[in-house]
Amino acid sequence: MKLFFGVAGSFAAVVAFAILLETPKKYLPHAGATGAIGSFVYLLGLHNDFGTVLATFFSALAIALASHTFARIFKAPVTIFLIAGILPTVPGAGMYRTVYYIITDDRARSSYYLTQTLEIAGVIALAIFIMDTLFRVRLKKVEKK
Amino acid sequence: MDYKLVMNMAVMAGELMLRSGAETYRVEDTMYHILRTAETQTVEASVMMTGIVATISNPDMEPITMIKRVQERGTNLNRIMRVNEISRNYCTGELSLEDAFEELKVISGKQYRIWVYNLATVVVPAGFAPLYGGGSAEVLASAAVGAILALVITGGKRLQINGFILDTLSSLAVAAAAMLLKGLFPFLNNDTVIISAIMPLVPGVAITNAVRDTLQGDYISGGARILEAFLKAVAIALGAGAGMALANHFFTGGGLL
Predict the structure, then answer these.
(1) What is the ipTM of this complex?
(2) What ranges do the domains of chain A cover?
(3) Which residue in B184, B207, B211, B181 sits closest to B196, CA to CA?
(4) Minimum distance, in Å, between the CA of residue B188 and any CA atom of chain A
(5) Which among A61, B21, B131, B256 could bridge B248 via Cys, Cβ 3.0 to 4.6 Å?
(6) A46 touches chain B (CB under 8 A)
(7) Residues of chain A below pLDDT 50
């Protein structure tokens, strides 16, 4: 049940965010679906005790895969799906907790969350790297034929 | 072949894309394709986050070079998409040079009405609340805080406040409003509300573009975008911290400690 609300909520949220980014109207549902897939993987990862960082990694990987697939199918730039779709994985929580523990004067926890935020940002970067590279390799093979 | 017109069109397409937040390699690629239709010997397009340089030349003519400084940058995926379509149609010969140039000129900015943007700013926090462990109470609270956020952003844009300051002010308002709500309804999970409500502000776009530019080898643009993402994150953190501290100072019933 929690999984369902999480996924449905992020679908709505990503569609709304896509509107803020001026996504073309016909691609709003696709952007939302990308985000929903991402948070489904994220929640599944958390449920299986993967930890936040690893769950984010798999989630970003799924989002990048979905956006590249949509981009190939609809012949649109990847950015249109990727930018809005990646939003659920962005470490807003880590940023907030870092500041929260600085204010409450808990240095140990604030530096723990700062490191975690940087780790998550790095992991998102890695996931996008991997998918971009994979799809480029595949494309080149097709072109050679 | 009207070289000047081809050059004008390529630079205009590039500027539109760069202003709308396209990746650097995509801008270069589009400009290169347009310039190549002039069939000159040399075709170069070099794009950085803050400007464009392009040149075409033949042995029997003076080279034509244009420089375009790009001041403001936002995110407008619709414009990227339209420029992409027009340049593709032009390069395959479906559109003539003049028609393509005219079409580029009329690409509009906004697709939706103002109230749709404001509604979207309310829906983003409400939608993310369940993902960060909120129940129905948190969804409602996030939507309320999102409404305040929409108010601050719309007001700030009208007053043309600098982006960094606006981010700080917005997250300050978010944090303070969430703390007040927590004071009124002590059962609320304050963390979830604040985290969900700052989601429309977080630098997701900058992070994604930074990664993709760096991967392409556009280190100057990639580095600039990483700096942009970091600065935005600092602005939001600063605002949230100040908001919580303020609310706690005036209103000790709030969520801190």
Answers:
(1) 0.84
(2) 2-144
(3) B181
(4) 17
(5) B256
(6) no
(7) 145
State how far the Cα of B106 lies from the Cα of B136, in Å rounded to an integer. 45
| Cβ atoms within 10 Å, residue B218 | 21
pLDDT of residue B254: 47
Residue A140: the pLDDT is 63
Q: A42 vs B125: CB contact, 8 Å cut-off?
A: no
Chain B residues in contact with A133 by the CB 8 A cut-off are 215
CB B192 within 8 Å of CB B134: yes
Residues of B with Cβ-Cβ distance to A20 under 8 angstroms: 117, 120-121, 124, 200
SS3 state at B199: coil
- In this complex, the residue of B84, B111, B198 whose CB is nearest that of residue A92 is B198
pTM of the model: 0.86
| pLDDT, tens only, A56-96 | 999 999 999 999 999 999 888 888 899 889 998 988 888 88
Q: Is the CB of A96 less than 8 angstroms away from the CB of B195? A: yes
Smallest CA-to-CA distance from A88 within A4, A28, A9, A5 is with: A9
Return the domain boundaries, chain B. Answer: 3-105, 114-250
pLDDT digits (tens, 9 = 90+) for B159-173: 988 888 999 999 999
Dihedral of the CA atoms B175, B179, B181, B185 (nearest 10)?
150
User: Maximum distance among all alpha carbons in chain B?
Assistant: 79
Return the residue matching tokens 């940023």. Answer: A95
Per the CB < 8 A criterion, the answer to whether B60 and B47 are in contact is no
